[in-house]
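Narrative summary of target 7.
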Amino acid sequence: MASNLSESIVLLQNQMNSVRDQFQIVVEQFEAEKLQFDADKSSFLKDKKCFDRERSKYENELQQMKKFQVSDNDIIYLNVGGEKMCTLRSTLIQIPSTVLSMIFSGRWEEKILKDKDGYVFLDYDPQLFKLLLNQLREWNGKQLVNEKDKIVFDMPVGLEVQFAKLIRQLGFEQEQLTPEKFSKIFGGVKIEQDGKSVIHDGNGSSHSEIRGAKLYSYGIHRVQLKIEKMRNNYWIFIGIISSSQTQMQLDSFHSPTAYGWAASKPCVYLNGQRHDGSYGSYDGNLCEQDTVDLLINCDKNQIQLLNRRTLKTYEILIDPNFCPKPWQLHLNLYYIDDKVYLLS
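Modeled conformation, tokenized:
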């Protein structure tokens, strides 16, 4: 009987130990969940505090805006670097997410710096700003087919670097490029990466023609390209050709509607005719890994080439009698493995 009692006590102790262990596990799980709850609560309170702060900031800005009833037709008087000029508010705010659109949105009327005559003071070069303002005036109120077309700037010859710096400062540059793809080829080349790159893959070195997909009839367009591979930095042609020139050919730079620049030599092609020397101050300085911008200005019948390595810009005037619109992007490669990539 004593033995049975002893066994019962041991069994009871084992059961109690098991219950205690299970209880300890439950307590530890509870403590862990409590810690997680406290962390989530702290994070929630932090997020709520940020939300309340942003809401308060928004409501304050809204109240500030209500103090000033602004209109797109308001005349804005400017003092730019000491030179007085004026324009419509709609001209300045038409392109969102730029410095000008934020300054003149109506949210900061009370904080805008003004001169003694009440003109809004902007500390920029007046000559450069006037060029920018004139282009904004041309676009104001226009409805273009491609929304990006209207925010591609015509770079003023001789002031390209300074003007590019100004538009970067004002937040325009990120929207400068015109979407483009390679679409047609003739010769030993192939198109890759969904039309974004073209490579010479022929059996031997030979001229090959490449054209872009987009047709250019009006407006200003900027196409950016990177010369990824150019053997011996010897030959690449970059320019335009009339889409009416339906017959493609190996030496396409000799096509009667071809205009553009050849690499390595100061060589320019005008309606398919080669011009050596210093036409438009072109020096032929295009190299492998260069990034270049081709500006196609249909309104002024001209094209420009900006080399971002040398910061030099070259210009060619297009005779529409020889090269009728619409125009196309036009390249010509020569050596095997030469490659050009579209950044637009």
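Confidence is low (pLDDT under 50) at residues 144-150.
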